[in-house]
Amino acid sequence: MQFKEFLRQLEPPLSYYISYAMKKRGYALEDVEEDKAMELLVKAVGPHVAEVLYSMYLECLRGRRRAEALAIS
């Protein structure tokens, strides 16, 4: 899963906040390349919120890998 895809799949309160913050600064997640998504997210929502979102993304990846490993076993 890509980081942008993760951001799109967040629950409505968070996804609305991210969308609002990015639009307020003239950004759109759809128009951003994957490698620039985190940089623009930091500018839009601030470094602390972006860090929490990235930590959530990493946990999601770990959970998927565990699920895949269990399915293979």
> Structural class from helices and strands?
mainly alpha
> Could you state the order of secondary-structure elements as H and E?
HHHH
Beta-strand content: under 5%
Total of DSSP H or I helical runs spanning 4+ residues: 4
User: What is the averaged pLDDT score?
Assistant: 92
Uncertain residue segments: none
Distance between the first and last residues' Cα: 22 Å
How many distinct domains? 1
Percent helix among the residues? Answer: over 70%
Major sheet size, sense and barrel closure? none
Q: What would the principal axes of the Cα set say about the shape?
A: elongated
Please state the CA-atom Rg, rounded to the nearest Å.
14 Å
* Total beta-strand segments: 0
Question: What key phrases describe this protein's structure?
Answer:
mainly alpha, elongated, 4 helices
Short description:
The chain contains four helices and no strands.
What is the element layout, followed by pairings?
Blueprint: H1 3-8, H2 12-24, H3 34-45, H4 47-72
Helix pairs in contact: 2-3, 3-4
